[in-house]
Design a protein that fits this description.
- The structure is a single chain.
- The protein has 6 helices and 4 strands.
- It is an alpha/beta fold.
- The mean pLDDT is 92.
- The longest helix has 17 residues.
- A 4-stranded mixed sheet has the order 1-2-4-3.
- Its EC number is 3.1.-.-.
- Belongs to the endoribonuclease YbeY family.
């Protein structure tokens, strides 16, 4: 395994609803596609109550959101071989609702949110239009290599 893709991955399903649909091998494949450096990641699937609590506690926003990324070495100068460390929290309720609203499968939407979260863990952001465009472009490219459609296509046609 190349150092670039060295991955330690923990997956937690305290909300077990997607455990049989979104498997560990699929998660590992999606994460590795978005990794540009070694990483130690935890992916956790939570219900709306836990998602809302985490979003309120850490971001000051009192609602459940689709994905939260807690990057533990964000902003630090780390050696190339030093792993990115992060927790990526997916809210099952929001994920399923958004997939239905966007006419996507749960798998398709989860793949996108995993790629999005992994990019955040590595320092990518979308605070301004330029950053957002760059991040969306990278996400679209990675998802394309995984066989998924551009998740932003509907917005671009808008």
């Amino acid at each position: 395994m190349s150092e670039k893709n060295k991955l330690t991955l923990s997956v937690q399903y305290p909300d077990p609803r997607l455990q049989d649909i979104i498997t560990r091998p699929a998660l590992r494949k999606w994460v590795k596609a978005a990794l540009f450096a070694p990483a130690e990641l935890t992916i956790r699937f939570v219900d709306a109550a836990e998602g809302q609590q985490l979003n309120r506690e850490y971001r000051g926003k009192d609602y459940a959101t689709n994905v939260l990324t807690f990057a533990y070495n964000e902003g630090e100068d780390i050696a190339e071989e030093e792993p990115t460390r992060a927790d990526i929290i997916l809210c099952t309720d929001v994920l399923q609702r958004e997939a239905a609203e966007q006419n996507k499968t749960v798998e398709e939407h989860t793949a996108h949110l995993i790629v999005h979260g992994v990019l955040h863990a590595q320092g990518y952001d979308h605070e301004d239009d330029e950053e957002a465009d760059e991040m969306e472009s990278i996400e679209t490219e990675i998802l394309g290599t995984l066989g998924y459609a551009d998740p932003y296509a509907a917005e671009k046609q808008g």
